[in-house]
Design goal:
24% of the residues lie in helices and 34% in strands. The protein contains four helices and ten strands. A hairpin with a 3-residue loop joins strand 2 and strand 3. The longest helix is centred in the N-terminal third of the chain and has 15 residues. The radius of gyration is 16 Å and the shape is globular. The structure holds coenzyme A. The site of coenzyme A has 17 residues, from strand 4, helix 3 and helix 4.
């Protein structure tokens, strides 16, 4: 099993289908499987990843996935480029073997290589990310919701990770668009 970095829409169709199948089985109850492919190839505006990290077995069997995003946001009066992580999934038969943690580590290495100070995610299971350095945040988040309305929430399960020496600011975040 290896972790590879691929573009948002990999050229290899088998990888695209593998991502869609994995995400559909992890998150897609009630969604048509063909919609899972278009979610990979045609992400919603403002929700395009910069790259994906895949756990692959053999040439192109996708056993794990993480989408990495970069977002220019304002935190308080500061402008900041945030790394963001979404659509994290590991196939059932490979869970609890540290693969999610390795995918997160790969995304952190990528963000750090671009001098990004913080990574943020919105977790269903916050406990999964604590050992990767994430802590629950208390920041209010101003964002564009699916119903096209701008809203302010303290998002349950929103977490930050400090990738370098900079301390996380506990101030309102203007996402300037949707979350991931
Ligand atoms: C959540 C998920 C990605 C975890 O993948 P994984 O490869 O099994 O995770 P890891 O083995 O790397 O475990 C990382 C840490 O999370 C813990 N963990 C794993 N699954 C957990 C769960 N369901 N609940 C609580 N903690 C969990 C592990 O014990 C480990 O903790 P540690 O580092 O302190 O020992 C996987 O279960 C999955 O795909 N679930 C369905 C999709 C989903 O819910 N994704 C989003 C989660 S926010």
């Amino acid at each position: 099993m290896t972790i590879i970095q691929v573009p948002p829409v990999p050229a290899d169709v088998a990888l695209v289908e593998g991502i869609a199948t994995l995400l559909h089985s992890a998150y897609g109850a009630g969604i048509d499987p063909s919609e899972a492919v278009s979610a990979v190839t045609e992400p919603l505006p403002g929700q395009e990843p910069v790259c994906r990290f895949l756990l692959v077995e053999g040439a192109n069997t996708v056993a794990g996935h993480l989408a990495a995003y970069e977002r220019e946001v304002a935190i308080g009066d500061d402008h900041c480029l945030l790394g963001m992580i979404g659509d994290v999934a590991v196939a059932k038969e490979f869970r609890r073997q540290g693969h999610c943690k390795k995918l997160v580590e790969a995304a952190h290495d990528y963000f750090s290589s671009k001098a990004i100070a913080f990574s943020v995610l919105f977790a269903f299971e916050p406990a999964v990310y604590v050992s990767s350095g994430y802590r629950l945040m208390e920041n209010e988040i101003y964002f564009l919701d699916e119903d096209n309305a701008w809203k302010t929430f303290v998002y349950r399960g929103s977490m930050y990770c400090e990738l370098g020496d900079r301390r996380w600011p506990n101030q309102k975040i203007d996402m300037r668009g949707p979350t991931v």
